[in-house]
Amino acid sequence: MKHNLAVIGYGGMGGWHTQWAQKSDAVTLAGIYDIKEERRALARERGIRAYETLEELLGDKSVELVTVAVPNDCHRELAIKALRAGKHVISEKPVMLSVKDLEDVIEVARETGKLFTVHQNRRWDVDYLAVQRIFDEDTIGHVFNVESRIHGSRGIPSDWRGEKAHGGGMLYDWGVHLIDQMMRLYRDKKIKTAYCEFDHITNQEVDDGFKLTLTMETGERGYVEVGTYNFIAMPRFYVQAMKGTAVIPDWRERCKVVKCKAWHESDVVPVQTAAGLTKTMAPRDEVTTDTFELDRPQSDVHDFYRNFCAAMEGKAEQTVTHEQMIRVLRIIEAAFRSVETGAPVKVEGE
Fold first, then answer.
1. Domains plus CATH for the chain?
2. Is 350:147 a contact under the CB 8 Å cutoff?
3. Which of 49, 182, 242, 321 is most buried by a 10 A CB count?
4. End-to-end CA distance of the chain
5. What's the whole-model pTM score?
6. What is the DSSP letter of 220?
7. How confident is the model at residue 263 (pLDDT cuts 50, 70, 90)?
8. Has residue 272 got a pLDDT over 80?
9. How large is the greatest C-alpha to C-alpha distance in the chain, in angstroms?
10. What is the DSSP string of 155-209?
11. Residues 204 and 329: beta-carbon distance below 8 Å
């Protein structure tokens, strides 16, 4: 059974959602609404129904599901309106700009009996899924450090994403994805502290990059970094575990693993460096390590919509839960507090 979907906002991500909906086996695209006439006209040129007003869209009883794909500061108002109009709602990320706003929307969802979630599509990124496999299959033992980075060199976008009033900044933009991924990897861990630093290289109003360290109560570390002024990117993922190390240099590449199979060598040869010999930093070889690559996992990002539609029918639990959304926003709020204080802070609710 396919469900009728309408999309509010016909910009970049709104266009992405409509393209997927047009070839979906889970939803049928009913139409779009955008406050800009030129975008509504573009939709019509492409054979897509464009509602003239938001009220017209929300009043269409055939529409069961609404995806909100507008600037971040508008998510709360539109989500509440759609829920009260009897629609199930998916919000683009970040789901809201504060935990309080999110709790308000969740309460309306409960009152109306409608489902509400956020489009955390990067749970289907194959680089992240490769790291998740290392956790799930205990490939290199207990993981004690994960470093997750996204680097670009074009600066922060010059649209509303660079404006504080609209909830701009890279913590809200890419950060919300990488934090969600990190918390999926460390799903059974509680956070002890969060420490964050912002970059302001090309934008002084909002962060155009950040470095966030999450330290778990049991000692593990999750490090998240986003940079928009990096002309040489650092590895997408770097994972340290008790039995080895894994690295994904770039999201387009496979995961390389070096697994330790024997700790000691009786004949370690010291390495000659510019300033002398070192035995401590002598490289490993095939005698004590195995080196291999993981196959890229299979992934279909539209499983997000398939799951949500199954949840609408009462056949599944929604994959992105309210508790997970709240946790990610609590970490983001802690990151902002850490930047303000210049010190590690507690994450509420941990």
1. 3-119 (3.40.50.720), 123-299+330-341 (3.30.360.10)
2. no
3. 182
4. 40
5. 0.95
6. -
7. confident
8. no
9. 78
10. -S-SSGGG-GGGT-SHIIIIIHHHHHHHHHHTTT--EEEEEEEEE-SS-SSS-SE
11. no
